[in-house]
Amino acid sequence: MSATLALRVAGVRTASPGTRIVRVALDGHPFEFRPGQAVLLGAAGQELRVPYSVASAPEEAARTGLLEFLMKVDAAGDPGPHLRGLARGLRIEAVGPFGSFVFPVKPVERRFLFIAGGTGIAPLRSMLWHAILSRVPGEFAASYSARTPRDFAYGPELRRLAREGRLRLELTVTREAPPRWRGERGRVGHPRLAPLLTDPATLCFICGPPSMLVEVPPILTALGVASSRIRMETW
Length: 235
What we know:
With 235 residues, the protein is an alpha/beta fold. The chain folds into 2 domains: 3-98, Translation factors (Elongation Factor Tu (Ef-tu), domain 3, Beta Barrel); 111-232, Rossmann fold. The protein is 20% helix and 33% strand. The protein has helices at 58-64, 121-133, 155-163, 190-193, 210-222, and strands at residues 3-16, 19-25, 38-43, 50-53, 66-72, 91-98, 111-117, 139-146, 168-173, 184-185, 203-207, 230-232. A 6-stranded antiparallel beta sheet has the order 4-3-6-1-2-5. A 6-stranded parallel beta sheet has the order 10-9-8-7-11-12, sandwiched between helices. The chain is globular. It starts with a strand and ends with a strand.
């Protein structure tokens, strides 16, 4: 059931030039959500609210008392009129949670593929860490695309998981990249996804720009994934 909570911003840090990771203190308020769900956020005292996926896993929120969000910002670090003056201590209101784009409670699959573009990594991060922290059995892979190498929010964290062998990771740059870039280039397509999809019985999650939501599902279908195993976030 959705509820309105009066909360405060506990911290803001740079994730990429155009995004910020915003942590919001629950201050003892009970807040249950499923990995992948979203809330409506806005500064206290005004009506405008914008939906944001929760980027933290429920297990993280329970342990830290914080909710984490990934927000697009302009050159001045402003996410928009709904959160004008975004900084530590800002009083905000959160309405939620809502959404059916969630990680299953008891998935029958043992392989999982997360496909993200831009800030679409937020709900997929929540799902991934939920699976890790709750010890969901299986193998995990992620295909994450961003405009430039500087635009990968949570890039260091994802690379660490890959080095530790907990995640098969592919990072793809869709626009300019320096000569030293060692990752993939171009749009996510069959050549990018095929190596990550070792079994058609893989549960796939997609969150990104509209073009990704149109182009990727047919590729997964061509690789043998049933439509029932393709989940997308659409707002």
